[in-house]
Amino acid sequence: MEQYLVGVDVGGTNMRMGIVTPDGRILKKIQYPTDMSRGGLAMMEGLVSRIQDFVRKGTRGVRSEIRVGIGVAGPIDMRRGVLIAPPNLPDLHGFPLREFLQEKISLSTAIENDANAFTLGEGWKGAARGCLHYCGITLGTGVGGGIVVAGNILHGAEGLGGEVGHMALNPEGPLCGCGGRGCLEVYASGSGIRRMILEAIEKSDGKGIVHKSKEGLRKITSEEVFEAAQKGDETALKVFNEMGSYLGLGLVNLVNLFNPEKIVIGGKVSRAWNFFIEKAKEVVWQRAMKGQREKVEIVQADCGDDAGILGAAYAALKLE
Amino acid sequence: MEQYLVGVDVGGTNMRMGIVTPDGRILKKIQYPTDMSRGGLAMMEGLVSRIQDFVRKGTRGVRSEIRVGIGVAGPIDMRRGVLIAPPNLPDLHGFPLREFLQEKISLSTAIENDANAFTLGEGWKGAARGCLHYCGITLGTGVGGGIVVAGNILHGAEGLGGEVGHMALNPEGPLCGCGGRGCLEVYASGSGIRRMILEAIEKSDGKGIVHKSKEGLRKITSEEVFEAAQKGDETALKVFNEMGSYLGLGLVNLVNLFNPEKIVIGGKVSRAWNFFIEKAKEVVWQRAMKGQREKVEIVQADCGDDAGILGAAYAALKLE
Fold first, then answer.
1. What is the pLDDT of residues B215-226, one digit of tens each?
2. Would the CB atoms of B257 and A161 count as touching at under 8 Å?
3. What whole-number distance in Å separates Cα of residue A208 and Cα of residue A229?
4. C-alpha B290: how far from its chain's center?
5. Handedness of CA B151, B152, B153, B156 (dihedral sign)
6. Given an 8 Å threshold on Cβ–Cβ distance, is B258 in contact with A164?
7. Same domain, B310 and B282
8. Domain of residue A118, CATH code
9. Does the predicted model carry a pTM greater than 0.90?
10. Do the chains contact at B291 and A150, CB–CB below 8 Å?
11. A153 and A83 housed in the same domain
């Protein structure tokens, strides 16, 4: 009997799902906008029908063993299978996701945090292929991460481990959404870049980006900062340099604590790679420990939007 | 046939070894001063004779399977079994410890970093007994650490992982011996406390500790700062408060990254527990993530000087 994996990436903007073979080929995939208009529970129920429909159509006529893996944003209590304060799905705090899926879908189902799914996907088929010890970082609206130790995702006591975005890097740094200060996330995320550009413009002499109207500035996005950097805007370049320097500090901690073979960096903000990575690597070279720093390769993610599907499928493959 | 473990703690000041049962009772132990006068290799050869002698005497007449575990200060390349820049044994950089022991002692032999041995000892018989996910920190001349993930020490790609003392906590902080800046070690070690008290005295108005002679101040030890704190010296109390606040930041990172059940803190500087732990816990409560921070218990080590012997014995027990 053939085995198929269904990898599902539950994002705040889009839902993606793919039928994946046990050796990691995506046979078929679909994507549709996330509809949160009727709340989180309705969204989850909709998701279940979509998965069932997708499985039916995707495996028509083939007798097969099917497993489902689902990657969801936000911390998951992995012992109980319960969502903890998911950032895009606030009304699903405390939602018993594992139990819900087991009831609704009569298939073996794995759940995983989205950043962990990204990390597993990159380790299975992407930039960290073949590594037993590596870290994944997603630079998006926030900063997520996953850590693989001896081939397994580091979950910790309750599945809340691997919060790479909330390493404290600067005791006097800006407040972070997590309640801490100076976390990696306040420097290396899309919203961190927005904050830094606004601060820089306030201090600057009016060059480059600052020619936007006041209204335009209020709404500036990290993508626009990236575009400005591509045009050589000095303020934007400075912001990415600062971002790279803090990202570098975060990498130092990962290198010293985990002695990884690779650190894979993805997420939409990583498109600005050339504007921050040199600075980040320089900080790693200056500050990480000898031995560890020679070993690690810092690389860009490789699977694009498929990392989440692949990683969720991989979590299902590894279900015991 | 009975099984015995020989746990050996190779310290810069003292050598300790114990005969340990598979359930973690120390049947017999000895301790003698480390003699480095004839260099590292001579010390290692002396150690081997001591171990052989100790095994002979300790198991006389009993047919038994014996395994040896050795904890050594400093990073160890665990793939190759080679010492990397051991702080107390500088001439043993690159020494092929595993091979050397296998040749000299015809017994199964495990090697482990001393901070990892401490951590394993505390997990086997001490303050983290029964935990699958925990961290150990030793506050000594430097700051060492070990991290246990799902029951196993986190070694990383080459055995250089777990360098808790070299998490970067303050980008503008003092230079650290590792080449970084503002590492946990520059705040929470004996030498960090020495540095902080000297800086504080320079800035202070001449109260308390500053009544020592200039000569006395130059030689001040972290123990003397501890004694001064016990007598209510304000400058000493401030230093331990600052130390606690940075230790707290380090704990925040461990809590967010590892979601541990416990963090066990030992080492000679931890004798000053009451002068820094409240501040450290306050920082964890303010800055670590909800979920993780509720789970973790921060506790004092329990095995005293035996942790190293026990942990090394445990590493031998778990040899495959």
1. 777 789 999 999
2. yes
3. 10
4. 29
5. negative
6. no
7. no
8. 3.30.420.40
9. yes
10. no
11. no
